[in-house]
Write a structure and sequence with these properties.
The chain is α/β, with parallel strands linked by helices. It is about 45% helix and about 10% strand.
């Protein structure tokens, strides 16, 4: 079978590398930068130190990206209008997936003048945007390594972003230092998101040998590092490993696809504002269990990769269940104040997601009884 493996990443990896940003911008001849900064990170002591340091070496503008909800096409329009006035030639993005997605979209919309909604879908961006340097402050989406930028269309209650070959960042910096100010629940949601990207890409029908290698490494990095998010004092090497896992996860999802857990999470993020990472994390292990129950045993390769006592699929499931329990990943809709009265609506809004379900190696029909049984346990 022929495959088109898409990778376009120029990434600096190492703790404390962000301090080299002025030299990196100079090396790559990147001028007149505007810094798009996640609102939470902008308040951190880490950013305050950066800002003081950077002002001595480079002249830059600053724009704050809200982090209180998923980015929408309307918030994108508002940010674009304000940022256009600065006429930047480079964007430097400090933030999680929402901030990086917004940064990448604005970079291309500065050179492609139609309304953002026109470019929804794939490869509708014709002109290359201005360069974007992505510096993730959460280890989750892998936006810095993919050509995806997700936005919610509030008019159609649909989540589909601006995607395609002109949506890659120009450079990225993975620095574990930048993740330590992230609140625990948000950090866990981000990390679980990267795990979902890698595991669903690993089991997708479009996966191949190269994706398998990347996914196995990403999952190994995740499993060996993620519980550091529960520690009072962060281990910067483990935080850096989580960024590496997320970076690989972005490549994996872009090339292989997603699956049931991600598909369920999309409508929940649109209608109920459940964070996408946590939304996928709620369901991913039950998808694993469903697949194993129906004869899918590829997970045994992961049990070997993780050096578990038993090299079988259920050992992998139990290992991940133990990790998710320690992380405190929610298991019920009630965690988000969603009660039984919403049950009918949730089953209804899921009807748009069959295409995502169809990427799973075992068939699950959204309108069938098996899915009702699957989802009922969350109420």
């Amino acid at each position: 079978m022929n495959h088109n493996l898409l990778i376009k990443t120029n990434c600096f990896i190492g703790n404390n590398l962000t301090k080299n940003l002025p030299e990196i911008l100079k090396k790559y001849d990147l001028h007149k930068p505007i810094f798009l900064i996640d609102a939470g990170f902008e308040k951190s002591s880490i950013w305050k130190k950066y800002e003081f340091f950077f002002k001595k070496k480079i002249n830059f503008k600053k724009f704050i990206i809200p982090n209180n909800s998923e980015p929408t096409y309307e918030t994108l329009r508002i940010s674009l209008k304000k940022i256009s006035k600065f006429k930047p030639k480079t964007i430097v993005s400090f933030g999680g997936g929402s901030c990086m997605d917004t940064s990448k979209a604005i970079a291309v919309l500065l050179k492609n003048k139609k309304d953002p909604i026109f470019y929804r879908g794939f490869d509708k961006i014709l002109n290359t945007g201005i360069p974007v340097v992505c510096i993730p402050t959460t280890a989750g989406t892998g936006s810095e390594s993919s050509y995806n930028a997700s936005f919610v269309d509030n008019h159609k209650n649909k989540k589909m972003g601006i995607n395609g070959k002109n949506m890659f960042s120009y450079l990225s910096i993975l620095d574990g230092v930048n993740t330590v100010s992230c609140p625990k629940f948000s950090a866990i949601g981000a990390a679980v998101d990267s795990f979902v990207h890698s595991l669903e890409g690993y089991t997708c029908k479009k996966s191949d040998d190269i994706i398998d290698v990347l996914a196995e490494k990403s999952i190994e990095l995740f499993c060996n590092s993620v519980l550091d998010l529960c520690e009072k004092k962060p281990n910067l090497n483990k935080r850096l490993n989580l960024l590496k896992a997320a970076h690989l996860g972005g490549i994996i999802q872009m090339n292989s696809g997603s699956g049931i857990a991600s598909a369920i999470s999309y409508p929940l993020s649109v209608y109920y504002k459940i964070p996408h990472g946590i939304g996928g994390g709620m369901f991913i292990l039950d998808v694993v269990k469903f697949n194993i129950k129906n004869g899918y045993l590829k997970y045994e390769k992961l049990s070997k990769k993780l050096n578990l006592k038993k090299h079988d699929s259920m050992s992998f499931y139990n290992h991940m269940k133990n990790i998710f329990n320690k992380l405190g990943v929610p298991k019920k809709f009630s965690f988000f104040n969603i009660n039984l009265e919403e049950k009918k609506k949730i089953f209804y809004i899921m009807r748009t997601q069959q295409a995502g379900f169809d990427q799973n190696p075992i068939k699950l029909n959204i309108t069938g009884n098996n899915f009702k049984i699957f989802l009922n346990k969350y109420f």
